[in-house]
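Aim 2 progress update. The chain analyzed this quarter is reproduced below.
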Amino acid sequence: MFQDSKPVIAADVVWSLQQVKDNASFVDSAQPANITSIASPSSDQIVLTLDFEAVAVMMPPPGYAPRGRA
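Predicted structure tokens:
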């Protein structure tokens, strides 16, 4: 809910995420770099399309455990 008591809808979330993605001067602007599209097909749904290859590179392979962890 916003300060004026209006509910937050999906379009508000899409707008916010797009602002972060489009403005390199924002803190954490690189976080959504692997999101190729942001959409709201309805007022209560958000669809993020990810660049799977980029996300897969960031994920550790199955069975991977950092040193000192089982």
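Residues 10-22 form the longest helix (13 residues). The radius of gyration is 16 Å. These observations will guide the mutagenesis experiments scheduled for the next reporting period.
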